[in-house]
Write a structure and sequence with these properties.
- The chain is α+β, with helices and mostly antiparallel strands.
- It is built from 7 helices and 9 strands; from the N terminus they run E-E-H-E-E-H-H-H-E-E-H-H-E-E-E-H.
- The chain has helices spanning 26-39, 72-82, 85-95, 97-106, 135-146, 153-163, 229-250, and strands at 2-3, 19-20, 47-49, 69-71, 113-114, 131-133, 191-199, 202-210, 215-223.
- A 4-stranded antiparallel β-sheet has the order 1-9-8-7.
- Strand 7 and strand 8 form a beta hairpin.
- Helix 1 (26-39) packs across helix 3 (85-95), helix 1 (26-39) packs across helix 4 and helix 2 crosses helix 3 (85-95).
- The longest helix is centred in the C-terminal third of the chain and has 22 residues, at 229-250.
Length: 251
């Protein structure tokens, strides 16, 4: 993790190792969508239809709704709020994975990437993971977003706005004492934005936490053998302990 004011490293362990990050990589898609909105090469109100090829299970709300289409900006909000897999695939169909990769490279990310669309099953011809990343780059990414340095201030703030809707506070942010469904503002002198990634044997989170004493950008990823509930709960407990350390640092 790094201090928001100085940019200096506060704590780091194996921060350059590349690990699977599951849905955390969707941040890179949101950055490209936001950049295009800033450039006005796409419209916030451009309607994107749901097609059968986008359908996928697990996280998200759209697959449970009747609406056959949404504006592009609403799909980005769904990705930010519920890591919506269907909305992610629809946006990728519109934006294109090569454009997301090109933007990531332009930002200087060498160890962090969105590798593929969301799939129910990954075969030998598919990328083995949805996304990968190093905690050093992910912490830097949130540091840059918080300071308006990802493309520009408007683009950065739009991405943070979508991510501020995130309802998943089950990992690190579970120790921040915030309401999972309503935590966009300052409460008890703290403010936070985060993105989580969860898959079999993968728990990852990156974000920003500000308090009255300090602010930090952070990232943590764990790749483990998810063979039993006890092991999974120990990983989650370790992530929440890390969250308590973050809260103590800023508060």
């Amino acid at each position: 993790m790094s201090d928001l004011a100085t940019g200096g490293s506060v704590f780091a362990v194996d921060e350059r190792i590349v690990l699977p990050t599951a849905s955390v990589g969707k941040i890179l898609l949101l950055i490209e969508v936001s950049a295009r909105l800033t450039e006005r090469s796409v419209s916030d109100f451009a309607i994107i239809d749901r097609v059968d090829g986008d359908a996928v299970a697990d996280s998200g709300l759209w697959r449970h709704l009747q609406a056959p289409a949404f504006p592009l900006g609403d799909l980005a909000a769904l990705v930010g709020a519920t890591s919506d897999n269907l909305a992610t695939n629809a946006l990728l169909r519109q934006i294109g994975l090569p454009a997301v990769r090109a933007r990531s490279e332009k930002l200087g990310l060498a160890r962090t990437a969105l590798l593929d669309r969301v799939r129910d099953e990954r075969g030998p011809d598919h990328a083995p993971q949805l996304s990968v990343g190093s905690t050093a780059e992910l912490a830097w990414l949130f540091h840059a977003l918080a300071h308006g340095h990802i493309v520009d201030e408007e683009t950065s703030q739009r991405v943070l706005g979508w991510l501020s809707l995130n309802a998943d506070l089950s990992l690190v942010a579970g120790s921040f004492g915030r309401d999972p469904l309503a935590h966009r503002g300052v409460e008890h002198n703290t403010w936070m934005v985060n993105k989580t990634g969860t898959d079999a044997g993968v728990r990852s989170e990156a974000g920003v936490l500000r308090g009255p004493r300090a602010g930090v950008s952070y990232a943590v990823s764990v790749h483990f053998e998810d063979t039993d509930l006890g092991r999974r709960l120990r990983v989650i407990d370790a992530l929440r302990t890390f969250g308590l350390d973050l809260l103590e640092y800023v508060h």
